[in-house]
Amino acid sequence: MLKALLTGPTGMEQTAEFMVHLFHDDEEAFYDLIVDLAHYIATCVDLLAAHDISSREDTLEALDDMLETFFA
């Protein structure tokens, strides 16, 4: 993932560099960040469903498609 961020679209390199440095400086904080991001994503998926914008299944399928495209 970090390699993809480093070579990805403009602006992604800074994100990757931050995460690489965080991993090296404080591995526990790195994993805490991953868990926090997962919680944030789950909350966003729930909000989309609660407001009848997109079902959980549709949102997760769209995220899956996006990740496949990103890593292709």
Notes on the structure:
It is a single chain. The protein has 72 residues and is mainly alpha-helical. 83% of the residues lie in helices and 0% in strands. It has 4 helices and no strands. The protein has helices at residues 2-7, 12-25, 27-50, 56-71. Helix 2 crosses helix 3. The radius of gyration is 15 Å and the shape is flat.
List keywords for this structure.
mainly alpha; flat
Q: Determine the number of helices (DSSP H or I, runs of at least 4 residues).
A: 4
- Helical content (DSSP H or I, runs of 4+): over 70%
Q: Which descriptor suits the 3D outline?
A: flat
Radius of gyration: 15 Å
Low-confidence stretches: none
Overall average residue pLDDT: 88
The secondary structure category is: mainly alpha
Would you summarize the structure shown here?
It contains 4 helices and no strands. The chain is mostly helical and 72 residues long.
Question: Topology of this structure?
Answer:
Layout: H1 2-7, H2 12-25, H3 27-50, H4 56-71
Helix pairs in contact: 2-3
